[in-house]
Amino acid sequence: MGLYYMEKGSGFPLILLHGNGESHEYFIHQIEYFSSFYRVIAIDTRGHGKSPRGDKPFTIVQFAEDLYEFMQEQGIAKASILGFSDGGNIALTFALSHMQMVEKLVLNGANLTPKGVKRRVQLPIEIGYKFASFFAGKSDKANRNAEMLGLMVNEPNIKPEELQKLTIPTLVIAGSKDMIKTSHTRLIYESLPNARLQLLEGDHFIANKKAEQFNSAVYDFLK
Question: Are residues 63 and 10 in the same domain?
Fold first, then answer.
């Protein structure tokens, strides 16, 4: 597949997974900070950033499979994974299938189902998806839009009880005014047997906007 990635630093691998419609560049403050302690690998998901779309399904499950192939290609037997938003959903899906390959897990603004997203945020996404789907056959741009929005409308689909088998240490971290319902973030935390919960003042984009507090919380957990 040949996913594009940026690598910096040395030591134990720390993989960063960005959110929907973004690229590794979202993590500019994390790459810089964590490369002092870890071998940081920030990946562009299939069809995002500089990674090719390929012809496989555009789904969270496929993205998790892409991550497995990437780690195999790079000879990485085990890594800690930090996932933001859809990247958190990919990280969680990956960990559920390949728990032995994950040292520690950081889920930032992740959700188990689309119902975890606040309705005022989700409704415009659903409307946009309907429009984009209608025009999808007419242009590449509309098709790409439909695929991106479809990820947020149709996925992920993880049952809270599935999380009970995930025994790896996990940090569940979100903004106090996140687009993910706080009750849903708490549900993820409460469903995981070995988790820590941290809410930072801010919105969905705390890793970017509140980098100092975010990095400090994540570093405390990882070390």
Answer: yes
pLDDT at residue 186 in the model: 98
Residues 58 and 135 in one domain: no
121 with 190, same domain: the answer is no
DSSP states of 12-24 as a string? SEEEEE--TT--G
Query: Which of left, alpha, beta for 35 (phi over 0: left; psi -120 to 50: alpha)?
Result: alpha
Side chain identity, residue 133: S
**Peptide bond preceding 124 in cis form (omega within 30 of 0):** no
- Check pLDDT > 90 for residue 139: no
pLDDT-based confidence at 140, cuts 50/70/90? Answer: confident
Mean pLDDT score, 101-129: 98
Domain extent at residue 130: 117-155
Count of domains in the chain?
2
Q: Give the model's pLDDT for residue 59.
A: 97
Q: Is the dihedral of CA 216, 66, 144, 179 positive or negative?
A: negative
Helix (H) or strand (E) segment spanning residue 127: helix 119-135
pLDDT at residue 161 above 80?
yes
| Closest alpha carbon to 207 in 6, 92, 42, 78 | 42
